[in-house]
Amino acid sequence: MRKYFGTDGIRRIANTELSPLLVYRVAKAGAYVLSKHGNTSPTILIGRDTRISGTLIESAMVAGFLSYGANVKLIGVASTPSVAYLTKKLNADASVVISASHNTYEFNGVKYFSNKGMKIPDEIEEEIEEIMDSDKLEELTAKNDKIGVSEYTPEYLEEYINFIEGIFKEDITKNNNKDFKIGIDVANGATYKLAERIFKDLGINFEIINNTPDGININNNCGSTHLDGLKKLVVEHKLDLGIAYDGDGDRCLAVDELGNEVDGDIFLSIMSNYLKEKGELSKNTVVATVMSNLGLNKYAASNGIDLKQTKVGDRYVLEEMLKNGYNLGGEQSGHIIFLDYNPTGDGILSSLMLIRVLLEKKKKLSELKKIINIYPQVLVNAKVATEKKYDYDKDEEIKLQIEKLEKEFEGNGRVLIRTSGTEPLVRVMIEGEDKDYITKKATELANLIEQKLK
Q: Potential cystine with 262: which of 38, 43, 157, 254 (Cβ 3.0-4.6 Å)?
């Protein structure tokens, strides 16, 4: 069990739980682990989102890297996917994104990327933790001329901008029309300048909201986790599409012209169908997680597409894609990975992929999304004793209740039980055709788990 790292790096309340001292230690240990096989002083990129604590965490991170002897390039405010891309493009030894993604401003976090621009695997995080809590940390201190230096390099973002625009310039210019207009919600986060610049350069008509970050309004009733403002904008201004990113820009959700949500499962359906038509869907396969909607399974089966499912977390989706040579995968939450372009979820890239499909096919999003039938999904948390939270599958009464429900659904519903990695909770998710019924059953099952595991 990891002590500091969770499913997406280290994420805690800034300056208390995520203290400057902790950040210093994770930086120093990380620089050693990620570069210990190299022969020269490592170079590490740092990007951050717009939180008020960003520069504080950045300063502690820089101190840890320089103390080890690593050299640092400070990109400034930058999306997670832009940092991931630049790490590989610029041949850096590693990179860090300082962000708490979709969480509110008081949280912050640290996400490491390898020299290949990919999130580091669990075993590397565990090795970093071992060094952090060992006597070896003090030994990793550079002296005299071996101390690292830092440099502010926001101009590196031009490389990412050129990369994204190069993918879409020709197609969007060819198919664009003056009546096509979209809304963009940048969540007062890391994409607030990037998105505006890229969409302007590509000649797409757009209205942008939540693009005035003040350090504390990131994800505040906006972005991919709060779509109501974007839905209102799209409907009232009669826009063709709404796009919402999260605080660090690796997620993208959409709103169709009628104001209805388009989640990651619908994204994957539309894009896998499009890529299959083009002959560009690698091995005729899409990768998702066990939390993906049952509708995605049925869409894939009825369209001759293989669906591979992993445990929850975009890193596990990526691992499956890399292991077997797949090029499309993602999560219901909006992490969509187009591995032909970037080895991480990229909100701007995903939204432009969708826009390209809409313009090329000359269809409304509400029409395209009919390719998949999304089943109602209900999630209920059962509060349990910490020491018993992994025991739900050992209790015969709980197992019997789950088996009874699954038999009842006969393939038109399912039960998924997951243990929270950070809280004393067991999450009960049920899918089915009748939302009222599955809500009742999920609540009953959660109550049973609470009784048995208290």
A: 254
Whole-number Å distance between alpha carbons of 449 and 420: 14
Query: Any idea what the CATH number is for the domain that residue 339 is in?
Result: 3.40.120.10
Catalytically annotated residues: 101
- Please state the φ and ψ torsions of residue 74, each to the nearest 5 degrees: -95, 110
CA geometry: angle 301, 307, 312, nearest 5 deg: 135
Structure tokens at 224: 């991919």
DSSP conformation letters of 52-105: TTHHHHHHHHHHHHHHHT-EEEEEEE--HHHHHHHHHHTT-SEEEEE--TTS-T
Lookup: tokens for 372:
């998949």
Point out the domain boundary residue: 90, 119, 152.
Answer: 152
pLDDT per residue over 411-444, tens digit each?
889 999 988 866 789 999 999 999 999 999 999 9
Domain count, the chain: 3
Per the CB < 8 A criterion, the answer to whether 45 and 83 are in contact is: yes
Same domain, 148 and 163: no
Containing 107, the helix (H) or strand (E) segment is strand 107-113
Whole domain around residue 415: which residue ranges? 377-452
Strands 107-113 and 10-13 come out as: antiparallel
pLDDT digits (tens, 9 = 90+) for 6-51: 877 899 999 999 999 999 999 999 999 988 755 568 999 999 999 9
Domain contains 5: no
What separation in angstroms does the CA of 303 have from each of 190, 277, 370?
37, 11, 13
CA triple 167-307-446, angle to 5 deg: 115
Boundary residue ending a domain (354, 371, 388): 371
